[in-house]
Each structure stands twice: as structure tokens, then as C-alpha cells.
Amino acid sequence: MIEHRPFNELGGANHGWLDAKHHFSFANYYDPARMSWGALRVWNDDTIASNTGFPPHDHADMEIITYVREGAISHQDSLGNKGRTEAGDVQVMSAGTGIRHAEYNLETGTTRIFQIWIQPERRGSPPAWGAKPFPKDERSGQFVALASGFEGDAEALPIRAQARVLGATLKKGQSTTLSLPAEHLAYLVPATGRVSVNGLELNARDGAAIRNETTLEIQALEDAELVLVETAQ
Fold first, then answer.
1. For residue range 13-49, what is the model confidence (pLDDT) as tens digits?
2. How do strand 163-170 and strand 195-197 relate by DSSP bridges?
3. Which residues pair with residue 73 across a beta bridge?
4. Distances (CA, A) of 230 to 16, 82, 87, 148, 208
């Protein structure tokens, strides 16, 4: 089963400096049918104006993954971490017992990100932050793990959840296959481009909520950049 969630039907809010679209219930957008997908709790598609951003605020007991689609995001937190994550790269913040952080677009142009929240397997762990570049040529034609709590994903940024975030880039006409355990769920969003997933066509920034599919056959109808979350139910 693959449920198509078109981008133009997502919830969201435009705050001027921030134009946010929500794949799941978030802030003032509430849909009881879209509260979570396995351990995946939030997938926000955020467009952040130049020299603006999220001022310092608190989180606890959540794995927060930021995938930068365009521009860059600059991070600082109460642990003393500071970093700048560019387009195509990923940062992970494990909020644990509590962390205060800020995320700013200090660039001259717009920054676009996917902000993904995954519920941790256990609560009360120490907070942590990390970032890593993922050159797109390493995920050309195939999915690679960007952040993961599964054994075997040694190159991925660690998260404390039974889930992984995968990324892939496909040229027009190129295809790839992804196998999923029968008991796992997946949520796929093309950051750019148009693709077919087991025969279902997705446009850029559409969501696909996937259940009971052990094989995904993905074909690029245009050059495409894909982000997928795989999670235990």
C-alpha cells in the first residue's frame, strides 16, 4: 500500500520569514489521520528567508534530522556545538534529556530544508549533535544511509531509534530498487524531480506513505533527489 500525499494538499503556515509545509500534524496543523508513521513523527518542508531563522528553543527526547536541500543552515546549541550544514548534507540532534538550540539561515539567499523528527527508542539519554557531508556522487543511482539507528549503517550519522534516513539521486530514466522488511514502514519524498514508485507517480515534495511493500521499484521521470525514512512499526 502506498498512500500519495500531494504537496499542495499538505498542512502548513507562512510566517513571512518561514514558509512551512507539514506532512504530519504539527503546531497549528492537526489531522488525526496524520499524527505519525511508525517512529516518524514530523516531516516539515521549510523555506527560510535570508538572515532569519529559529531563535533559541528547547527540545527533549526526540531525534531531529535536518536535510538541507538548498542554501545552508547554521546551528548552535547549549552544549557549545556550532556548525554550518550545506545543501545535500545532514545534521542530527539527539535531544535526549534536554537541549536548547537555534538554527539560522545566515546566507544571502533562501535556505530550504527537510526537518524530520523521529521518536527515540528510549527516553532520557544525554543530548548530542553531529553533522556530516554526503557527496551526491556517493548516492548516485542508489540509496545510502544518512542517519541510522540500525546495525550495519556504520557510515551514517547515529540516531537512537529503530529507523534510518536514506538519500539517493537518480538521473532521468534511471531506476533503483529498495528492499524493506515486511514489518517496516517507509515515507518517501522527492526533494526535486518526478519519480514513479511501484507505478505511482510522485512530483517534487509530494509524500508517499508506504506500508506492506517489501520491494520499491523507483524510476526517475526527471532528474531527482530522494529522501526516505524507513522505520519499524
1. 999 999 999 999 999 999 999 999 999 999 999 999 9
2. unpaired
3. 85
4. 32, 28, 22, 9, 12
Asked if 73 and 113 touch (Cβ cutoff 8 Å), the reply is: yes
Rounded Cα distance, 177 and 197, in Å: 10
- In sequence order, the 6+-apart residues with CB closer than 8 A to the CB of 59 are 93, 95, 98, 99, 101
C-alpha cell at 14: 507562512
Q: Are 71 and 52 in contact (CB under 8 A)?
A: no
**Residues 107/72, Cβ–Cβ less than 8 Å:** yes
Q: What is the CA radius of gyration of the chain?
A: 17
d(CA 196, CA 211): 16
Per the structure block, which three cell numbers stand in for 204?
A: 517534487
Grid cell listed for 57? 528553543
Give the global pTM: 0.96
Cβ pair 200, 2 in contact under 8 A:
yes
Tell me the three cell numbers of residue 133. 557531508
CA 198 to chain centre: 21
Closest CA to 232 of 177, 164, 147, 173: 164
Q: What angle do CA 181, 128, 143 make, to 5 degrees?
A: 30
